[in-house]
Design brief:
heterodimer, A: 106 residues, alpha+beta, 3-stranded antiparallel sheet, two-stranded antiparallel sheet, 3 helices, globular, disordered N terminus, B: 157 residues, mainly alpha, 3 strands, 9% strand
């Protein structure tokens, strides 16, 4: 994955009449992000499996293995990839009432 | 009360009397009893380094709207069915197209009840004696869970 460039403009007003425009360029590295689902005492295991299949299109075997990890390890990384897509998945999982977070992949 | 899968991929629940309708109405009340609402609780899981402030500004309102819409839809279905049955014996239809709204509403209720009463503590510590209020809440918690299981088996496939 390559890097992306983000440009920011700051309009700084100096006194009453002078305006200084400064341009910063920084390279944003495309660090992968993890979608993490945390265990809770309410959501049914079978429901968690079904949600993983629905949101990620995982097959039942893979979804079941991930749901098992959530339950036994208290949390599981269920997807890793670019941030924008990770955010979308987190939102979808939270819509299904699963305790879900986002973290940078180490 | 009996729960029967339908040929159309839904469930039919036959109520027996007014107390059954009260039980379904308690679903809405329980789901609305979070100390911190569910959208805020879920949104609060996103930390600052992961964009938590933006999450609370842009995503949490959508979550809140989704959860409130689920409850509003289910409330209307319950009241309509109770009206048809004149508050007594009659069917409540959980149609396939409303499956996720039903499941989500029962889930909101169970999450709220568990947040309030921490039922797992009673399993971990035999010396804890539940109050009558806690026993009643646990009965509803299990009832909601039973219907969720029926939804998982017959509707949300």
């Amino acid at each position: 994955m390559g890097g992306s460039t983000r440009t920011r403009r700051h309009n700084l007003t100096m006194a009453d009449t002078e305006t200084l425009t400064r341009t910063d360029q920084s390279v944003m590295s495309d660090v992968p992000w993890n979608v993490v689902v945390h265990d809770d005492p309410v959501n049914w295991h079978h429901y968690v499996v079904m949600v993983f299949m629905k949101v990620f299109s995982y097959d039942e075997k893979h979804a079941t293995r991930l749901a098992d990890h959530v339950h036994t390890l208290d949390r599981a990384i269920v997807w890793t990839g670019d941030r924008e897509k990770a955010e979308l998945y987190v939102q979808q999982l939270q819509m299904h009432q699963l305790r879900t977070t986002l973290e940078k992949s180490s | 009360m009996t729960i029967i899968p339908t040929l159309e991929g839904g469930l039919r629940i036959d109520t027996e009397d007014a107390s059954d309708w009260d039980l379904f109405r308690s679903l809405i009340a329980d789901a609305g009893s979070f100390r911190v609402d569910l959208a805020d609780r879920l949104g609060g899981l996103i930390d600052k380094d992961s964009g938590g402030e933006d999450w609370r500004e842009y995503v949490v309102p959508d979550l809140r709207e989704e959860f409130q819409d689920q409850l509003a839809q289910i409330y209307a279905l319950i009241e309509s069915a109770a009206h048809e049955a004149e508050g007594g014996a009659g069917p409540l239809w959980l149609r396939a197209e409303h499956g996720y709204a039903w499941y989500g509403s029962f889930n909101q209720a169970r999450l709220a009840l568990n947040e309030k009463h921490q039922f797992q503590l009673f399993k971990e510590d035999d010396s804890l004696v539940p109050t009558p209020e806690q026993l009643a809440a646990y009965a509803r918690f299990r009832f909601y869970g039973k219907i969720q299981n029926e939804l998982l088996q017959h509707v949300l496939r």
